[in-house]
Design brief:
6 helices; elongated
Length: 191
């Protein structure tokens, strides 16, 4: 009984690991959502607050909703932030996601307000498309990882229990010809 319990615990742990691994695919989508919210925040602050861009970034870094974007902390200059975005390994953003943000940060503050707002809108649209792509990828890979973990767990349990469970072997007296005659008898009953 203890061996069987150990096998069940092993199977359950494989399934749990699969579900935990599938959660890592959500982090990119969350980071993209935060990045999109950051761009919308920048757009509204540029349009309505009249603050300096450095102040806007500092106020964004203090907000909890942007915490998945680790590169925001302690950076108030856009060139410095672009370098930080590119080097950042903690954020779940891919290289192409980071490029969308760095392109925006390099253009902010160099043109008039209307052009900056258009750049923010363009960046938000690109991030939204990237987020939709990440969502599809998350759904596919999450389903794959979870199914794989369940199958692996079932295989482990089957392989482990096959050593301890004896299967019934048919007696040698029961042959194909006796099975055929039994089948003939049962078919004649329906006539």
């Amino acid at each position: 009984k203890m061996k069987f319990l150990g096998i069940v615990i092993l199977g359950a742990s494989v399934i749990a690991i699969g579900f935990l691994l599938s959660d890592c695919y959500k982090s990119r989508r969350r980071a993209l959502d935060s990045a999109q919210q950051l761009v919308l925040f920048l757009e509204s602050e540029i349009c309505f607050s009249g603050k300096d861009l450095g102040e806007i970034i500092k106020s964004a870094a203090e907000k909890e909703c942007f915490s998945p974007l680790c590169f925001l902390k302690d950076h108030s200059f856009f060139k410095e932030m672009c370098q930080s975005v590119e080097r950042d390994k903690k954020t779940a953003l891919l290289k192409e996601d980071k490029k969308i943000l760095t392109d925006l940060f390099l253009k902010l503050g160099k043109t008039d307000i209307d052009s900056q707002l258009k750049q923010c809108r363009l960046c938000a649209n690109k991030l939204e498309r990237a987020e939709n792509s990440a969502k599809k990828e998350e759904e596919q890979k999450t389903r794959l990882v979870r199914t794989l973990s369940v199958c692996l767990s079932a295989a482990l349990i089957i392989l482990s229990t096959s050593r301890y469970v004896s299967f019934a072997v048919p007696s040698p007296r029961y042959t194909a010809s006796s099975a055929f005659s039994t089948c003939k008898l049962s078919l004649s009953a329906f006539e």
